[in-house]
Design brief:
Length: about 375
Amino acid sequence: MLRTNRASPLKASLRYLSTVQTTSFDPKSLDVKPNASIYSAIQPTGKFHLGNYLGAVRVWRDLCDIAPESTRIVYGVADLHAITVPKGRKELKDLRYEAIASILSTGIDHDRAIVYHQSALSEHAELNWILSCLTGVGYLGRMTQWKSKSEGSESASLGLFAYPVLQAADILLFKSTQVPVGDDQSQHLELCRHIAQQFNKSYKKTFPLPTTILAPTKRILSLKNPTKKMSKSDSDQAATLYMTEEPDAIAKKIKKAVTDSISYEFKYDPENRPGVSNMINLVSGIQRKSIEQVERDIAHLDDHKKFKDYVTEVIVEEFRGPREEYNRLMGDQSYLHEVVKKGNDRARAIAVKTMNEVKVNAGFD
């Protein structure tokens, strides 16, 4: 049985911070299997923040750079998932293309990787229904994200409850063997493997059981409250850093970020100094350095202003290129349409082939 995390927010954040990388990170260390099929997707819920960047899309770019040519790579904008929280027509349309621009702005090559809109492929919903009929509601009810998002709400939708099955359909539609995920999605991938096993056992072996490629940087926490993860939905937007923000805006947010009263040294101590530790963690993630290396780099800093100026400079320089490219892409909507159309066509060719096999194996031929 899956165990629900009942730890307090503070204990949870300390656990994330206590498991960050302790050695420098080399993208070549990502474990890509021969002839792998890699799939991942991200919801179009607004411009990407620092956590999205370090926990997802930069790893996507790394995989494009280091994966063998025999590896198939598919990255989706999960716009069907986005409407578990209803959105207006114009808002959803804008968000979908902001997501495409954000993905491309990080340097992901859309010739190397298929970049597409999930909603363009009806096969996602079709496979979702078949897999839903093999998935127990008890299993879904134990999902920790369902528990956290629906707690105290009488209006939580069926879509919110069942979206992990659609997520499994997304992955299995491309017969994915590896899925880059953050640590908060590992339970969903466990469910995906369970569903694949159920289908293979009930009908015929059709789906491989995908494994995880974990992002090397653990969760980036809120700048204003380092007991919870950084989120686009935070009521205090000073807590969240976005890839597209101008340097002055980044500097202002870092200046107001929660740290502590100790000013003579800045050490990684998540239990006693969560705010400082969170910023050391994000610098570690951006620079691909170990915590110990970052501590050595900042050992000469002896007040909060110098420390925060250092963190600001690291973030501003990392986001300079993606921000400029994002702005350029958003000014060229015709180009974004071309990229999406090409990606949709390439993705559909794979999805149709998989669904034909699924239908035959399940008896729908």
